[in-house]
Protein: Fumarate reductase succinate dehydrogenase flavoprotein
Organism: Liquorilactobacillus satsumensis DSM 16230 = JCM 12392
Amino acid sequence: MEKKVIMTELVVAGSGGTGLAAAYAAAKAGLKVIVLEKLQQIGGNTRISSGFFAINSREQKAAGLQLSKATAVQRLLNYNHFLANGPLIHKIVNSAAEALETLEQMGMKIKLNPTAATTQFAHREDDYKGGSYHMYQDKAQGYQKIQQTLERAGVEFKFGITMQELLSSEGQITGISAVNEAGERFEVHAQAVVVATGGFGGDKKRVATVMQTPYLRTIGVPNMGEGLDAMVKAGGKNIDATALIHAAQLAKSKITRKTSKQHLAGFVKNPLTQLLLTPLFWVNMNGERFTNEDVVYDTVEWANAGWSVGGQYYFVVDTATLNDFTEHGGKLEVSQAGPGADTTTGNFVELAEAAVKDGTAYKGNTLAELAQNAHFETAQFYEAVKKYNDSVQLRVDQQFGKSKKSLVYAIKKAPFYAFTTQVAHLGTIGGVRVDEHLRVLDAEMRPIPGLYTGGANAGGYYEGHSYPAYEGLASGFAWTSGRIAGLSAAKYVKNKQTLPSQPAKNVYK
């Protein structure tokens, strides 16, 4: 049977923000571009994101914000303990505003979220964290316009196609082998490839192995790591691929790719989320307190704290606390970080009893009974409660430095309840080592000719299991790195066409 072959100049695998930006940049530069997408629509995991991180943008200038790109670079490097790729971070930060303008030209409407309006209350006094969030407006319509814009620019989309492997000849990447939904295999031959398949967030076993815990919740499209694995097989080095942990969820709460009216991924309509999203008393699976619960006001720090104890923890309340939420709405500010809270009223004792019945919470008429039911170590849990009650009484947390205003609710009036909480992730980030032009590098730090990547397959922008708490950072990186990859690929292809009998020059220096 004759092998089916499609010819083009650039093939892009994946149509999330990275792939769309790459395809548009390359097409505008004059290349013939084909985009392969495993789903039946564009957008990928970028569809669940709410905004774009950029510094010194047109929107910020209009709002009177004077932010320094150099300061942003330094802050990102500091957060990453200088383990990240400095030139890459510099390139992304200095290119993001232009990439944002390109995204608007493609059809997405953007509105800058003021720092004072941030849903992450820990960012209220920080314009770099809270004032750099350029939020997508009318996303569904925006993605329709983006597809139309790319098609008018000559980009050809092929849906229901999953990338399999990279093709190569004489040390250069020459295309992609792929399979359609009917199981038919074919090849796309090209002069360059951009892998924008979005990581491996759909591979639960792989995520559990990388993150060393089976308890993480997931949301997003079923990216299984095809592109990342293909690049590693072709000589790329996976340096930092990890889950994009993002806030936490009530156990067994239904998470979908749809968002709430506040555009927050993973919104759950249950008033118990008011307890989830306030700095109450948290313990790990052994019943030991483990953090300053004020981290609930920062999505990244909240997720990091939860992951540090295995990805699952419990918030513990007494009946007096539940009654106060029922009668007065509680004395603590309810965070809107991550999934956001359902702020409707309700009978919180009845809600707690329903959670116990559903197996997502535990109840005890004594602390010892609660410890037994929740499988805590009784002596350790009892000591943790005693120390915390002392902190509430003194309004001083000598253990983790929790703020005075958050030390409100002691654990005294029975019955007592412990609610199971699990860290969520929005797919994966990190991946193969790249340079600032988004060329994939081999073990000797040399570019693999013709191979580019970005977004959730590109390593070096983050460090370890965490990512800097700057709103819209991952989504901004996807679009910006994709645009750079597309421009870089276009330069490479045009140089090859100019000098067909010679190795491609380094046109980036």
